[in-house]
Amino acid sequence: MKTGKGDGLFPMFITDDRIYFTAYSAKPLTYEYKSLFIHANHDIHFDGDLALLGQYHFCRVRGYSSGPVFDQAELNGTLPYVDLANSSLQNIQKILHSRCQILVDDKNVVAYLLKRLGQSDQLSLLVDLERIPSHMGFSKFGHASDLVKRFDEAHQAMIQDGTIDNILSHYLGKMIQQQ
Questions:
Q1: For the chain, give me the number of helices (H) and strands (E)?
Q2: Which of 29, 56, 92, 128 would disulfide-bridge 101, Cβ 3.0–4.6 Å?
Q3: What is the CATH number of domain 1-179?
Q4: Which sign, positive or negative, has the C-alpha torsion 46, 49, 53, 55?
Q5: SUPFAM superfamilies of this UniProt entry (predicted)?
Q6: Which DSSP category does 116 fall into?
């Protein structure tokens, strides 16, 4: 992207250091949700204060940020029981088998994996902690400079004719995100 050897990349989050070499789509292609899930038959409530969930066992993916709010609560000891796994699928298996009580992950990833496993009704969304826009990014160098406008036009048409909603519904099922 920085040199123009790659035309585009998804997902791209808008950051100060990337604006020098990246042209972004006008609208986010999707959103990344940092979310908390519980087993559907558990009675856990969230009132906005993560400290009140400190007695529960969380599971999340190793090496990924769960967003500044959750990461800080884990770092400062507010959430002392956080178990790490190598993948979202491993964590879903853990919560389905009661090896953790709250799953922290991207809502769309969880929805896709639950649908693939035929287990969409087994977890409930407790809360979306964060909603981060995810854009299509195009290199400002090389051959991609004219792609942004064409991409934006096609993307808008897909939103208006329902194609985007149909794709999301197909892959995410019940937990479809809202654009």
A1: 5, 7
A2: 56
A3: 3.40.190.10
A4: negative
A5: Periplasmic binding protein-like II (SSF53850)
A6: H
The bridge status of strand 8-12 relative to strand 123-139 is antiparallel
pLDDT at 179: 41
Q: Tell me the residue type at 19.
A: I
Query: Do the strands 58-61 and 102-106 form a parallel or antiparallel pair, or are they unpaired?
Result: parallel
In whole numbers, what is the pLDDT of the chain averaged over residues? 90
Q: How is residue 173 written in tokens? A: 């099922």
Q: How many residues are listed for the chain in this entry?
A: 179
Q: List helix spans (H) across the chain.
A: 68-75, 88-96, 107-117, 147-160, 163-172
At 165 the three-state DSSP class reads: helix
Work out the average pLDDT over 1-27.
Answer: 86
Q: What pTM was computed for the model?
A: 0.82
